[in-house]
Amino acid sequence: MVKIVEAKFGIGAVVRHRMFDFRGVVFDVDPEFANTEDWYLAIPEDRRPRREQPFYHLFAENPETYYVAYVSEQNLVDDSDNGPVNHPSISEQFTGFDDGRYIVRHHEA
User: Fold this and answer.
1) DSSP per residue over 47-84, as a string?
2) Considering only CA atoms, which of 15, 87, 90, 103 is closest in space to residue 55?
3) What are φ and ψ of residue 75, in 5° steps?
4) Is the pLDDT of residue 109 over 80?
5) Model-level pTM greater than 0.85?
6) Residue (of 25, 39, 30) closest to 76 by Cα position
7) Which residues of 26-52 are buried (b: 16+ CB within 10 A; e: fewer)?
């Protein structure tokens, strides 16, 4: 039997981390943890998220820099009310920002 997982946030959603000072735009979603074991074990055990939940790839920003983040669903909250994110890679995947979310760029085949 296949387990169906529903992600709380979709592609183009603007989110922020519950504990750390960064926000970002979702550009991909894994239905469960799909990063390396080393990455997972590097997280302190008392803060390590469950593997069996969606994980999000984000174009992330904090007050100092832009980067790509990989974050569990339990550590994200909606941040659409705080406007757009300024990450320089956003234009590669999205065409604009409307009603609190980014619009996915459709690439020609």
Assistant:
1) GPPPSSS-EEEEEEE-SS-EEEEEEEGGGEEE-GGG--
2) 15
3) -100, 10
4) no
5) yes
6) 25
7) bbebbeebeeeeeeeeeeeeeeeeeee
